[in-house]
Amino acid sequence: MTTRKAGAAQPNAALTLRLPAELHEQLSLYSVFTRRSINEIATEVLSEWLSSKGRRELVDLIAERGLDTHADVLEKVKYD
Fold first, then answer.
1. Whole-angstrom Cα distance, residue 43 to residue 54?
2. Res. 1 pLDDT band, cuts 50 70 90
3. Quick one: pLDDT at residue 9?
4. Closest Cα to residue 19, out of 30, 33, 34, 6?
5. φ and ψ at 28, to 5 degrees?
6. What is the predicted pLDDT for the residue at 18?
């Protein structure tokens, strides 16, 4: 994980995401009606999840598995 300045452009990475057909249909409809791309929606949702529930789960897992082994990751997660 690299540190970046607020507002700095960040390179994108390609990702293939396999969704159940019904979820994809709902996402597609949402995308059409909000005039936002599926990529934009997915990026926002993942970012929000990783900054809240995902972050808490990661911190808990690191604490369970040994702080010494993962101290560098824990510092990044706590203060990003």
1. 14
2. very low
3. 73
4. 30
5. -65, -45
6. 95
| Torsion angles phi and psi, residue 52, rounded to 5 | -125, -95
Identify the CA nearest to 74 among candidates 58, 53, 57, 51.
58
Cα distance between residue 25 and residue 8, in whole Å: 33
Spans of all domains in the chain: 38-79
Task: Name the nearest CA neighbour of 31 among 45, 15, 16, 17.
Answer: 45
Alpha helix (H) residue ranges in 1-80: 21-34, 38-50, 53-65, 71-79
- Which candidate, 42, 13, 14, places its Cα nearest to that of 26? 42
| pLDDT tens digits along 3-27 | 455 566 778 899 899 999 999 999 9
Tokens of 48: 């929000």
